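Check out a protein:
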Amino acid sequence: MNDTHVNDTHMNDIHWMSAADLGRAYRAGTLTPEVVVDRLLERIARFDGAINAFVSVDAEQARAQARAATRDMAMGIWRSPLHGVPVGIKDLIDIAGQVTSCHSRLMLDRVATRDATVVTRLRDAGAILLGKLALHEFAIGGPSDDAAYPPARNPWDTRHQTGGSSSGSGAAVAAGFVPLALGTDTGGSIRNPAGHCGVAGLKPTYGAVSRHGVFPLCFTLDHVGPMARCVEDLALAMNVLAAHDPADPGSAPDPARDHLSEMDAGLAGLRFGIVRHFHEHDARASDEVINAIDRCGETLARAGARVTDVRLPPLGHFTMAQRVIFHSESWAVHAQWLRTRPADYSYIARRKLMVGAFLGAGDYVQAERWRKQLIEATDQALQDVDVLVVANSFESASALGNEAEFTRTYSRHARSPFNLTGHPALALMCGLSANGLPLSVQFVGRSGADPVLLRAGAGFERHSDWSRSHPPMPFPQAA
C-alpha cells in the first residue's frame, strides 16, 4: 500500500471526491453544488499556474450553473447522477460562445456558435462546465513550448509531461480540479494521459459517443470519452454521453445505454487474456511495466477471475495500419493550412502532420484492408476471453523539455490497435515507477460490451492498491 492511497479521511476533501461521491453528498444534504464549485475554482486559481491544465475557466457561468443546480435540488429536482457535478472539456470540443482553440494559434479567434452534442448532453444532465482544458495541438502535437499555450504538467511531478493528447483532461482530474473531464482518443489520447496521470480513462466502442462539434483529426479513428477518478464515474458519464446521433456519420445505431448494469458483479467468472507478446516481445517495455502487468494478472486471479495468455497479430501490424490511416486523414484535414500557414503550427504538430503528404491512395487502401483483418483477429481472440489485458505506455512519463526522450518514449505503447479496431479500451493505474510516476494497464472488451469492460475495471479497482490514488501535496516541484 502506498502513502498516496485514498483513505476515509481524504473523502472529506471535496477536491478528491468522485462524481458519485458528490451525488451522494448532494442527496444527503451535506454538500451543495455552489460549495463544490467555489472550492474547485479556488483550487484552480491557487494551483493551476503550476499545472497548466486549463486554457480558460468560465467562473461566472460555472457559479451560475451551480446556483441553478442548488435551487433544483432544494425543490427535489434531480436531472441525473451528474447533476451539479463539475466537468472540464478538452479544448477541441465546442461550447457555444467560447473559443475552441485546439491549443493552436490558427484557432484563437474561432468562437463556437453551438454546443457539441456531448456538451448538450452534459448540460441536459445538469453537469456544470468549469472551462476548457489544454491538449496537444490539434490532438496530434506534443508538450510544445511554441504552441498557443504552455504544455500541461504532470501533477505527480511537474517536471514531467502528462501524456496526450488530452493532457489537460488527465492533469485536471489528477490535480483535483474536476472529478470528471472529456477527452478524445485517436491513437490513445485518453488512455495515455489517464495512465501517466494515474486516473481512469475510457475510449468507448467506436461510435458509442457522438463526435459532432468536435474538431476532427482522423474520421476513421476518432473517439470521444470520459476521464475520471474511478470507474464508477466513467459509467455515470457514459450513461449520459452514449446515444445515437444522426449528426455524426460514424455514430452507432444502438450503443449500450446502462453502463452501471454490471458494475457490482465482481471479477469471479470473468475470463481475462493477457496479450503478453505486445510488451515483452513485439516491443520490450520497461521492467517496471512488465512487472506491473504481471501483478495485475495475479490480482485478477486472486479475485476469482480466470487468467490466461492470448495472442493477437504482432503489434507492428496494428501500428503500421493505424499510422497510415491516421496520417492520411489528418493530412486531409490540415493540408490547406499546412500549405498556407505552416509557421502557425508548433514544430511537433507540423512535423507529424506533414507525414501524410508522403502517403498515397494505395497506402490508404492497403491499410484499410489490414484494418478489417485485424478487427476480425481481435474479435476472434475475444471469443475465448471476456477482456484483454494489455500494457498501456511502455515507460513512465518522460521529462518536459527533452524532445529526444519524448520522441523516443511517446510511440512506445499498445493503445493504437484499439483505435484501429474500435474495441472499447479502459486505462487504469496499476503501480508507481521508481521515480514516483504512475504506471497503468489497459483492459479491452468486445465491441458494444462497454458495461462488461467497466465491470472488469470496477472489480480490479476493488482489489487494487492503486484505486483512487492521487499525487502528494503540494505537487512535487510546484511548491
User: Anything to note?
Assistant: The chain has 15 helices and eleven strands. The domain at 12-468 is CATH 3.90.1300.10 (Amidase signature (AS) enzymes). Residues 1-11 have pLDDT under 50 and may be disordered. The first helix runs from residue 19 to 28.
